[in-house]
Amino acid sequence: MRAQIEILATLQKVDREIKEKTGIKQGLLGEIQAKEKEILAKKQEIAEAKAAYAEKDKVRQEKDRLFQEESKKAVERRMRMGRIKNAKELQALQREIDQIKQANSELEEELIKLMEELETVKAGIKAKEEELAKLQEEWTRKRDELQAQISGIDQAVSEAATRRQTIASQLAGDLISRYELIFSRRNGTAVVEVAGGICQGCYMNIPPQLWNEIIKSEKVNLCPSCQRILYYKSNVTQEKPA
Fold it and tell me: Is residue 156 within 8 Å of residue 21, measured between CB atoms?
């Protein structure tokens, strides 16, 4: 069993390497997803601003159309005044012209206000588009770097997985199953040293009889407290708990 425990400790090193690199990869993927989400949100923001601009411009166009129509009416009424001789009709026509002028004056103010608002929205869209372009340019370079890192990690994990397969093939099936279960439940530390009668995984004292059995290494011994597989330092390379 001593030899099996030594192999198990070696396997744990490889598994930790795989676990660490996989964690780094997940972090890089998370960074990529977060940045792409940020870019997507910026695009959506620009699209919404353009939609708002288009909607406001429709209002402007409609008011401009009304303004042009009322202006034509005013011109037509003024031309008619020269042909009217009746004073009462003349006064009525003058009141109509004044009403048109008043309405057009209000329309003109609204048009000016709308045009100012449109200019503000347009400037905002331009600023957002420039910001997006800069963000995308920077991200293109950064993404290439991250993807290169991920490719390197994939290669390293693949090589480690091959080594693991070779090492695992030397272990008994029930032993490796037990080890994998503990490894997953104990945050990547399934095999730990016992030093000075203390488990280095949970730092609890080991009973004297169990300590003697660990030194003999005739069977797999588990810590009564944390249930990790215990080994004696002089037998295998020391492992520190994660």
Answer: yes
Residue type, 21: K
**pLDDT per residue over 117-154, tens digit each?**
999 999 999 999 999 999 999 999 999 999 999 999 99
Positive or negative: CA dihedral 135, 138, 142, 147 = positive
pTM of the model: 0.73
Place of tokens 């991250």: 146
Angle separating helix axes 2-81 and 87-168, nearest 10 degrees:
170
Cβ partners under 8 Å of residue 229, min gap 6:
5, 8, 178, 179, 182, 190, 191, 192, 220, 221, 222
Q: How far is CA 147 from the centre of its chain?
A: 15
Mapping DSSP onto H, E and C, the string for the chain reads CHHHHHHHHHHHHHHHHHHHHHHHHHHHHHHHHHHHHHHHHHHHHHHHHHHHHHHHHHHHHHHHHHHHHHHHHHHHHHHHHCCCCCHHHHHHHHHHHHHHHHHHHHHHHHHHHHHHHHHHHHHHHHHHHHHHHHHHHHHHHHHHHHHHHHHHHHHHHHHHHHHHHHHHCCCCHHHHHHHHHHHHHCCCCCEEEEECCEECCCCCECCHHHHHHHHHCCCCCECCCCCCEEEECCCCCCCCCC
